[in-house]
Amino acid sequence: MENVLVNKMKLLKIIKKQNCFSAKEIIEEINISKRTFHRYIDELKDCGAEIIYNRQSNSYCLLNDFDLIEWINEYYV
Length: 77
Fold this sequence. Notes:
Blueprint: H1 2-18, E1 20-21, H2 23-30, H3 34-47, E2 51-54, E3 59-62, H4 68-76
Antiparallel strand pairs: 1-3, 2-3
């Protein structure tokens, strides 16, 4: 469970830093499978992260200032 949270935090850090990113970049950066990447994206969306896929640039973009730690504190603490 800890690695999952750490990987999601890494994913969000990269998203916030770059704003738009390719799946390949993230998969290589945090060493996860393509399936895991898509599962993380779906789970983050379910938590409130506004992540969209841009077909023109073949990349994912974060549209809001989602904070996973803040979300965890709000719903679980």
